[in-house]
Request: fold
Amino acid sequence: MIYHGLIHRYKQYLDLPAHSQTVTLLEGNTPLVPMPRLGRELGCELFVKFEGLNPTGSFKDRGMTAAISESLGRGAKTVICASTGNTAASAAAYAARAGLRSIVLIPEGKVAVGKLAGAIAYGAEVIQIQGSFDDALALVVEITQKTPIALVNSINPYRIEGQKTSAFEICDALDAAPDWLCLPVGNAGNITSYWAGFKQYGKGLPRILGVQAKGAAPLVLGHPIEKPETVATAIRIGKPARGEQALEAAHESNGGIIAVSDAQILEAQKTLATEGVWVEPASAAGFAGLVAETTQHKIEAKGKRVVVVCTGHGMKDPSIITESFTTPRVIPAEYEALVDAVG
Ligand SMILES: *Cc1c(COP(=O)(O)O)cnc(C)c1O
Reply:
């Protein structure tokens, strides 16, 4: 079957206005990768929904195909977003595809190199803000209220519509919802989307574990964080726009929202790579949360079907790895030297 992108595939489930003009890069349709070894260690049937394999390397493409399709159909000429990086790259790619101008606001010096490079490669006008993601978001909200520029952050309801499709795909692949779904939570658009998607699709409901980073855990602490800090830049957010909905999803699904340390996140990133899946730090938070909860017996994963959502590709943030490894050794280009080196 030829794939035409997720709007085409799940049109009947998506509440998009009639004026939408589909802009697609054939996003979605990402693999649900079985993780038999790590699953065995945790005693569950484990899968990774590998969202890093979307066209621009993160799940943001699911929402962006919908948001840009609506903006284009409405006659917008320019789109804008605040971003910790992945939204910027995604907005830039879809805007380019649609022939729209894109402007992205990022927190100064805090965006991973692979994301910034993507935004620039796709032709976005990138502006750094002397402030946090939350400051950038407040600014783009204001300018889109006062000018015809279209907002494509996940406050935009069509982002949520598009992102629901990952829940549909998981249900289609497993023929039912899993017992648990674990995912990172930043601005909380994605957890909102999954919960809405599972509820709508009617193939059962998972319990949802949302995972924040300890230094950026407003939903766990119960108040906004002025200066969020974490190595997981994609979830370095102190005031989630959809925080209430995230708490609701966790509560209604009989799941929860927890925080894990940067050390746990980086450990989870390494562990996932031991079974062949390299994800960016924020993307490993869901798995870190699962490990923490099962170790403390707060989640009984034994015999359960668990899907961990890995939101973005490891190649987005290569410096996390390259800064911590020692440079590979150098040997002469001679066979004997190779034999010595291999041991
Ligand atoms: C955006 C993003 C998140 C957080 O998603 P929210 O919808 O903001 O909660 C997590 N991981 C990655 C890789 C992201 O790009």
